Amino acid sequence: MTYAPTEEARPVVFWEHRTYRGHLSELRRVRADLATDLAGFDADLVDTLQLVTSELLANCVKYTDSGGEGGEVIRALSMPGPCTLRVSLSDLGGGGGTPRIPTERTADEWDWAEGQRGLVLVENLSTAWGYFRLAPWADLGTHVWATFALAPDRTPPGLRPYVFTR
C-alpha cells in the first residue's frame, strides 16, 4: 500500500489554543479571552462568538466528564479561509453523549422546556456546526465546532498566520 498525503487547506489564521478547567466558573474568562483574541473584528460577531462559545463550554461541562475534578476543555480559534471564522471546543474528559438537537419533543414540551435549547441557538447563529469523537476507539472526549461568515472588508488588517494568545 502506498501512502499519498492529501492537500488539505491550512488555516489562513490560527490562534494559539486556550485551555480551561471543566467548570462553569470559566465562562467569564472564555468570553474575555475571545474579546481579546478577536480585537479589531466586528463587535456583533465577537458577541455572537462569545454566546455560542459559552453554550458549547456549558455543554462540555454538563454532558461530559470535563465537569469533574481535573477535567479540561480546549478552545481552538481559526480562520480556515479569508471569509470564515471557526471556534471549536474539545472536552478532554470523555464520558458524555454526542451533541444533538432534541427533535422528539412535542410543541408543548418545547414551550415548557428550560434546557437543551443551546444547540438550537448554535445552529441558528452559525453558518454550520458539527462534532466528532476525539478518538473513535476510546472515550477520550468530543470536539465540537461552529463556523461563522466574515465579510472580507470587516476583517482586521495585518492578521498573522499564527496568533500567540499569551
Walkthrough of the structure:
- By secondary structure, the chain is an alpha+beta fold.
- The protein has one domain (13-153): Heat Shock Protein 90 (2-Layer Sandwich), CATH 3.30.565.10.
- It contains 4 helices and 6 strands; from the N terminus they run E-H-H-E-E-H-H-E-E-E.
- The chain has helices spanning 27-37, 43-63, 107-112, 118-125, and strands at 13-21, 72-81, 84-91, 128-133, 142-149, 162-163.
- Strands 4-5-3-2-1-6 form a 6-stranded mixed sheet, covered by helices on one side.
- The longest helix is centred in the N-terminal third of the chain and has 21 residues, at 43-63.
- It is globular.
- The chain starts with 12 loop residues before the first strand and ends with a strand.
- The mean pLDDT is 80.
Furnish the topology, listing elements before pairings.
Elements: E1 13-21, H1 27-37, H2 43-63, E2 72-81, E3 84-91, H3 107-112, H4 118-125, E4 128-133, E5 142-149, E6 162-163
Parallel strand pairs: 1-6
Antiparallel strand pairs: 1-2, 2-3, 3-5, 4-5
Give a quick set of tags describing it:
166 residues; alpha+beta; 28% helix
Count, helices: 4
Beta-strand percentage range = 25-35%
Q: Which CATH architecture would you pick?
A: 2-Layer Sandwich
Give the strand order, joined by hyphens, for the main sheet.
4-5-3-2-1-6
The SS-based structural class is alpha+beta
Q: What is the average per-residue confidence, as pLDDT, rounded to a whole number?
A: 80
> For the terminal residues, how far apart are their CA atoms?
44 Å
Q: Using only CA atoms, what is the Rg?
A: 17 Å
> Looking at the structure, what is the overall shape?
globular
Domain Histidine kinase/HSP90-like ATPase: 23-147
Organism: Nocardiopsis aegyptia
Protein name: Anti-sigma regulatory factor (Ser/Thr protein kinase)
GO molecular function: protein serine/threonine kinase activity
